[in-house]
Amino acid sequence: MFQNLMIWASENWKEIIPNIIAGAALFYAYRAYHSSKDAAKAANSFALTDLRIRAKDSMNEADRSFQSLQVSCDQARADWEKHKIKTTPPLSRGIFDKPEQVLSNARLENMGRDLLDNAKKHLVDLEKLNTTELTQGLSEIKTAVIKIESLIPKVESPTEIIHRRIR
To answer: What is the Cα 133 distance to its own chain's centre?
Structure first.
């Protein structure tokens, strides 16, 4: 039996060698295909991780912008309180009287809070979001940061009003 196989192989070696080479090529093509699939998965995972990190950074930037708006509003509120104490006689000061500018500053602060909350709704659970949702959430956060930053110069303090009157 073995001798018959050896005789057949020696007679047909020109057909056997190309089949072995073709089999090896198919094996390497199979391995290359799976390697490329693994590389594509890793690249997609890297892109998602990068987007998640950028989303967290953007949320931190939005928090910082809102905190600077809050600080500006708190400072203006304290300045208005000092201004009220300096400019109005003690008996005519109402306990609950607030200048229109203080109320306007409070509205600005509330607008900033609403912008921040609405933007953060798009990025509730970063681990469950796909690339499209993360990209959309990033653009929403960046838009909110720009809008919050634009509210900061609108905060009115009494020193600005006094300077406006002098000019």
So the answer is: 11
26, pLDDT greater than 90: yes
C-alpha 71/C-alpha 83 separation (Å) is 18
Q: How far is CA 7 from CA 13, 14, 21, 113, 115, in A?
A: 10, 13, 21, 88, 85
What confidence score (pLDDT) does residue 90 get? 65
Decide: 159 and 148 in contact? Cβ < 8 Å: no
Return the closest-CA partner of residue 54 out of 65, 42, 46.
Answer: 46
User: Can you list the alpha helix ranges (DSSP code H) found in the chain?
Assistant: 2-11, 13-87, 100-121, 131-151, 158-166
List CB contacts of 157: < 8 A, sequence separation 6 or more. 75, 76, 79, 80, 101
Q: Widest CA span of the chain, in angstroms?
A: 123
**Mean pLDDT, rounded, for 104-119:** 92
